[in-house]
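Summary of Year 1 activities. Much of the first year was spent building the evaluation harness for sequence design. The harness presents a backbone, in tokenized form, and records the residue chosen at every position. We chose the following record to illustrate the format because it has been used consistently in internal testing since the harness was completed.
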């Protein structure tokens, strides 16, 4: 039997714990379910994986020289200018990424709460950790480490609040100044190792979250997750290593050029 519009509008209101629950807009209703939260985690995860890859590739411009990296940094601010104001699209992307981060974190936390409520305490204490790999068991902590490092990274290389030699527009020397500090370089290494673990499990599990899980594709999923995580980690770890090894070093000529540009009102 096909439900009519009248049937749908007069359908009884769901009752939860003895109370009538008001119907919400369907995307919110979908998100309240475990399946909805898994879909949100997967979709936002794909967006964040894409950002991490593009960000790493962009930073590789440092190996082409200070001028190339600074030109790339300025290019991001000039996207769709003069159709849009300078930095408008860049900030739109940043706000979208912040929203994706927020949804990803909220969905992960909500799923954890739902799982704990659905699982008896006795079962929880006897969980088979042998079946779960290291990446999945440490997903929560790797996520926390990455989140804390992201806050530092933004304060260091975007805002410049914790980088005493920060100069807006001089992305190359800002990077060198940051990573030439041994403590910051070590923080960068630890954070990116945690990011690699998080990416491996996230890239592996997002297919399952989208309902695309099939034993025939499991090896392909594992290979993809491993390769993606390795590319990101090796690319990102090259920066603190090369700065500490003086392969990437301070360039006074480029700093003077940026200062001159600022003085000219650029």
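For this record, the design step produced the sequence shown next.
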């Amino acid at each position: 039997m096909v439900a009519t519009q009248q049937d749908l509008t007069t359908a009884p209101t769901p009752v939860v714990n003895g109370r009538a629950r008001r119907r919400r807009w369907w995307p919110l209703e979908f998100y309240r379910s475990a399946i909805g939260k898994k879909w949100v985690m997967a979709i936002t995860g794909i967006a964040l994986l894409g950002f991490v890859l593009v960000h790493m590739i962009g930073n590789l411009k440092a190996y082409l020289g200070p001028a190339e990296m600074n030109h790339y940094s300025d290019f991001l601010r000039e996207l769709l200018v003069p159709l849009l104001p300078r930095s408008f699209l860049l900030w739109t992307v940043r706000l979208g990424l912040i929203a994706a981060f927020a949804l990803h974190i909220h969905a992960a936390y909500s799923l954890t709460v739902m799982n704990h409520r659905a699982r008896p305490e006795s079962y929880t204490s006897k969980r088979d950790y042998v079946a779960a790999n290291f990446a999945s068991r440490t997903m929560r902590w790797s996520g926390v480490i990455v989140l804390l490092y992201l806050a530092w990274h933004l304060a260091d290389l975007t805002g410049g609040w914790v980088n005493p030699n920060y100069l807006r527009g001089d992305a190359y020397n800002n990077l060198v100044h940051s990573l030439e500090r041994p403590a910051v370089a070590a923080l960068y290494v630890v954070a990116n190792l945690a990011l690699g673990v998080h990416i491996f499990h996230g890239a592996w599990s997002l297919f399952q979250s989208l309902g695309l899980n099939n034993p025939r594709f499991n090896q392909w999923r594992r290979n993809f997750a491993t390769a993606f995580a390795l590319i990101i980690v090796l690319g990102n770890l090259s920066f603190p290593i090369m700065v500490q090894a003086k392969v990437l070093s301070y360039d006074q000529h480029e700093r003077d050029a940026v200062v001159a540009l600022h003085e000219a009102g650029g």
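The two ends are 69 Å apart (CA to CA). Quantitative recovery figures across the full test set are reported in Table 2.
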